Amino acid sequence: MTDVLLQMTDIQKSFPGVHALDNACLEVKKGEVHGLVGENGAGKSTLMKILTGIYKRDSGSIKFRGKEIHVNNTRESQQLGIGIIHQEINLMPHLTVAENIFIGKEPMKGLFLDKKKANDDAKKMLNALNIDIDPAIPTGQLTVAKQQMVEIVKALSYDSELLVMDEPTSSLTENEIEELFKIIRNLKARGHGIIYISHRLDELPIITDRVTVMRDGQYVGTVETAKVTKSEIISMMVGRTIYEEPKVKSTVPADAPIVLEARHLCGNNVKDVSFCLHKGEILGFAGLIGAGRTETMRALFGADPLDSGEIIVNAEPITVKSPNDAISHGIGYLSEDRKGFGLAIGLAVRDNSVMANLDAFLKGPFTNDPKIDRTTIDYVEKINIKTPSVSQLVVNLSGGNQQKIVVAKWLIRNSDVLIFDEPTRGIDVGAKQEIYKLMNELVAEGKSIIMISSELPELLRMSDRIIVMCEGCITGEMNIEDATQEKIMTLATSKM
Amino acid sequence: MEKNKKFNFTKILAPIVLVLLYLFFSIFGRNFFSDDYLINILDGSYYIGFMAIGVTFVIITGGIDLSLGTTMMCAALLGGAAFNSWHWPMIWCLLLVVFVATAIGFLNGVLVAYLNLPPFIATLGTQMMGMGFGAILTRVQTMRYPTFGTPEGWFKNFFYKTTAGFPVGIFWLFGFFLIALILLSKTKFGRYTFAIGSNREAARLSGIKINPWLTGVYTFCGFCCGLAGIFYAAVYTSIIPSTGNGMELLGIAGVVIGGTSMAGGTGTLVGTLIGVYIMSVLKQGLMSMGLQSHWQTFFTGVVVIGAVLLDQYRLKQGAKVKK
Fold first, then answer.
1. Pairing of β A210-215 and β A218-224
2. pLDDT tens digits, residue range B237-287?
3. Mean predicted confidence (pLDDT) in A218-242
4. pLDDT band at B309 (very low <50, low <70, confident <90, very high)
5. B94-130 residue pLDDT tens
6. Less crowded by CB within 10 Å, the N or C end of chain B?
7. pLDDT band at B5 (very low <50, low <70, confident <90, very high)
């Protein structure tokens, strides 16, 4: 029973400007649950997308059941017997369980759909896994956990021998996870191979047989789960070379006043979050995707509703009901999704730069265009935005320069507290350095910065203090002197 | 660089089409190149022009207003009722026209901004409500505005044409066009109109209070429909209940022909005005060639599709350059 089901070796994949996978390897045996772990951006998803035909590999070999395979799309991989269950549910909520399972391959009776057969077959498949769901009800009425089980059955309906599960437990409760594990063990006993991707390292010893660790697109190693500890896995995950010298000591004086304090913030994926920010400080927020960092900042900024909690700016409690409230108290938010939330990319540089502070650029009822241009040019020069002119459309600028325009927007608004959410995402290396330099200049001028980043070296280089979040809660806080990648990763993967 | 070239090309394309059309009909139409036809072209453009100016703002926010035509007619009917049945002085009747249309625009704004209805649905609803309301209030009687020479007929001389026959309406339309131009390009209102249409979420996260501004845009569009109503009454005198349906499409067509994208975030009033006159020239030109109104409708449709195809082509070119 130890025959190999899937063998991926030396997979290479490059995107323009990024070497996403470099000699990635993965081996899954029949009847094995194989964990696949790594930090955000380690290449897990890319590897799975290559396996299921969403991306094409540049080189390397994939052997499935001993035969070299070349899949061009998900349909082909399904037909070969490789199924994937994505983190987000991909069911059509208005269709019934049976209709979802048999979508694209509906049982027919002549010209018409055979509903009865579909329901009966679905029932059989559900029963085989001891899942108690009525195949005739719309999937939208099921809990997330039940929907996920439908997804599993749907994947199995293609006779999948290999199932990829991407973060299957991320939105399940304790009991539901137990249910899922039962199903996984059941599948395992029937000889299916399962690739289990998870950020929850604590789950690995419970459910997996072996674990493969990836880092920066490279294969780090495969270990038998029973023989390693969590901290050994973590050190495999984070052992990445740090190109940047980490900050050794905080540059914030011990008596720096607190400019912003959050007390017991609660909201969507924000659970009793409290922290404070000092003047001139860069406060790093670490955590994995879904840790609630962005949600916390959006709630603080008034972009999403806050259920409860207090926000104190310069020792005065403030009420934040909309972004406008937060902005008027000197808070600026630089979204991780610049194009979605940060910029009106179809408009000119000068339209974006004054968008948050147009009132200061009015002369009577009219906009003071010369003043807008002058100020924008000042900031273009000050923070070195490379644009042919201030009337250039933002869409034509590079990611780094777009980010700087968002920075300029908040500087023109005189914001004292800047929240940088993944400030260097999608920005090339040179531009990253410029953003770092800019952030250091800003704090030197007395601004205070909250930086959310998923890149640990970046956090260690920039922050004076680091707060770690996991699943909506703060799981730790440390001064930069004490911070290490291992410590952060341990806190980021430990559920409270 | 290439993108800018293309953009400029489409910018001047609409005026070129307008001039070519005028030349074409001057050569092939009977008596087209004459004062009479020119005045006809102008007369037919006033009410469409005002509606189109208003809805340009709405379309730049990424919305749509389907209630233009019936809002205009409903307001004009009420004004007519005030004149005929309640014997109000003309000036108050005209103010009532503007007030009613502005109120409907405000309602559109509240439905779209505060109650989050899709603009298509909200204004489809008010379109029908306006049409019904006008008919109910006038008991389906045609409302006649005063004619030239009657005591209250001054308003025709004032808004439409002088006793000597000079089309003063053109000054009103162009005057208002200039005001709207300044409003769109030189005020906070205009800036936020673009910002909301270009990226509503980014605008909100920049502290712009979306709802009041968006309501303002629809209210302004309603106000424009009110002005359109006055000019419709001044030119055509009789307002028939349960009409106006379909006229909104003329206004929207003008905007689209003028190169404003339905996706929002971009658009020009100059283009809109040219779009309106392309339709007007087309209508009178086809008439001068002896082709009746069905042909006008047909060709207006052709022009609309051509304009949008061009818009898409331009966007595609833009996307290519981006990569």
1. antiparallel
2. 999 988 888 899 999 999 998 888 888 898 999 999 999 999 999 988 988
3. 83
4. confident
5. 999 999 999 999 999 999 999 999 999 999 999 999 9
6. C
7. very low
Cβ pair A327:B203 closer than 8 A: no
The predicted model gives A235-239 an average pLDDT of 80
Q: Give domain status of residue B191, yes or no.
A: yes
Token pair in block for residue A370: 């010369």
At CB < 8 A and 24+ separation, what contacts does B174-183 make?
B176/B50, B176/B53, B176/B227, B177/B49, B177/B53, B177/B269, B177/B273, B180/B53, B180/B56, B180/B57, B180/B224, B180/B269, B181/B269, B181/B270, B182/A366, B183/B220
CB contact under 8 A, B205 and A323: yes
Higher pLDDT, B39 or A170: B39
Cβ separation of A367 and B191 shorter than 8 Å?
Answer: yes
Residue B323 belongs to a domain? no
Q: Does A191 touch chain B (CB under 8 A)?
A: no
Contact A367 B186 (CB under 8 A): yes
Q: Which CATH class is domain A258-493?
A: alpha beta
What share of chain B in percent tops pLDDT 90? Answer: 61
Question: Which residues on chain B are in Cβ contact (under 8 Å) with A344?
Answer: 194-195, 198-199, 202-203, 265
Q: Do domains A4-238 and A258-493 have the same CATH topology?
A: yes
Neighbouring residues of B66: CB distance < 8 A, sequence distance ≥ 6: B120, B123, B124, B127, B248
The minimal CB distance from B188 to the residues A324, A345, A367 is found for: A367
DSSP string computed for B167-196: -THHHHHHHHHHHHHHHHHHBHHHHHHHHH
What is the rounded CA–CA span in Å between residue A38 and residue A493?
11
- CB-CB under 8 Å, A343 with B202: yes
The confidence band for A427, taking pLDDT boundaries of 50, 70 and 90, is confident
* A303 shares contact with chain B (CB less than 8 Å): yes
Q: Write the residue in B201, B207, B265 that is nearest to A340 by C-beta.
A: B201
Residues of A in contact with B203 (CB under 8 A): 344, 355
In A, minimum Cα distance to B322 occurs at A396
Structural domain contains residue B154: yes
pLDDT computed for residue A429 by the predictor: 67
Interchain CB contact of A340 with B (< 8 Å): yes
- Give the Cα separation of A36 and A26 in Å (integer): 9
Identify residue B92 by its one-letter amino acid code: W
Q: Which residue of A has its CA nearest to B263?
A: A346
Determine the residue of chain A that is closest to B192 in CA distance.
A355
Q: Given this model, what pLDDT does residue B11 score?
A: 64
pLDDT of residue A17: 63
Is the pLDDT assigned to residue B8 strictly greater than 60? no
B212-241, pLDDT tens digit by residue? Answer: 999 999 999 999 999 999 999 999 999 998
**Every domain of chain A and the residues it spans:** 4-238, 258-493
Q: How many CB pairs under 8 A join A and B?
A: 79
**Cα-based angle A399, A401, A407 (whole degrees, multiple of 5):** 110
Contact A323 B198 (CB under 8 A): no
pLDDT for A261-288, tens place per residue?
999 999 988 999 999 999 999 999 998 8
Could you name the CATH architecture of A4-238?
A: 3-Layer(aba) Sandwich (3.40)
Domain assignment of residue B205, yes or no: yes
pTM of the model: 0.80
Q: Do A346 and B266 touch (CB under 8 A)?
A: yes
Q: Range of B226's domain?
A: 11-317
State how many domains chain B has.
1
Task: Give the pLDDT of residue A236.
Answer: 86
CATH number of B117's domain: 1.10.3470
Q: Which of A303, A341, A351 sits opposite B191 (nearest CB)?
A: A351
- Nearest by CB to residue A366, choosing from B186, B207, B209, is B186
Where are any strands of DSSP class E within chain B?
A: 143-144, 238-239
